């Protein structure tokens, strides 16, 4: 029982960190636009493509978790997400930032459903409570992303929130 509880909390924390990767961009998107001379259209594309790539990943990669490979999908998804976050953090033009957002979305779209599968199978008797915890963690992480950016960008630069969230995720 104690082991299940630790598992649920660990995956909730991971889920929050992954969601923070989505949210970290929103506070600084104007700074990125101004710093690198991007158009508003490019900024909109960067924001939207992350959600689109995650959706496609959920349809194509995430089902592998249902075939007994949930752990591998989570690990691969986290690593891919970290790579994408670092690409966004250190990118200085549209192409690497956009590519990083796509890569990050693919990782998140693969990992989050696999996390849900692991949590469901770990404690099927507490399904509603545990999925509620995961959803709460997702919302918390998504809300914390902009807060992390707001705190770190001023003193440490545009790459800092991406590096911190990637470290927290990895």
Summarize the structure.
With 170 residues, this protein is mainly alpha-helical. The protein is built from six helices and no strands.
What Rg, in angstroms, do the CA atoms define? 16 Å
- Biggest pleated-sheet summary: none
Helix and strand run: HHHHHH
Q: SS-based structural class? A: mainly alpha
Low-confidence stretches: none
How many helices in DSSP terms?
6
The percentage of residues in β strands lies in: under 5%
* Mean pLDDT, all residues: 95
Cα(first) to Cα(last) distance is: 26 Å
Into which percent range does the helicity of residues fall? over 70%
Please give the number of β-strands: 0
The backbone outline, from C-alpha atoms, is globular
């Amino acid at each position: 029982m104690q082991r299940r509880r630790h598992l649920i909390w660990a995956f909730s924390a991971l889920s929050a960190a992954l969601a923070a990767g989505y949210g970290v961009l929103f506070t600084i998107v104007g700074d990125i636009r101004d710093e690198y001379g991007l158009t508003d259209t490019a900024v909109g594309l960067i924001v939207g493509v992350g959600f689109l790539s995650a959706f496609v990943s959920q349809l194509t990669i995430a089902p592998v978790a249902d075939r007994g490979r949930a752990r591998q999908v989570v690990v691969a998804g986290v690593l891919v997400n970290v790579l994408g976050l670092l690409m966004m953090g250190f990118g200085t033009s549209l192409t690497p930032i956009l590519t990083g957002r796509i890569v990050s979305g693919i990782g998140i779209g693969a990992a989050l459903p696999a996390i849900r599968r692991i949590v469901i199978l770990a404690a099927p008797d507490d399904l509603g409570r545990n999925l509620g915890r995961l959803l709460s963690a997702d919302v918390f992480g998504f809300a914390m992303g902009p807060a992390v950016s707001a705190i770190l960008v001023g003193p440490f630069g545009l790459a800092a929130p991406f590096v911190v969230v990637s470290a927290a995720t990895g």
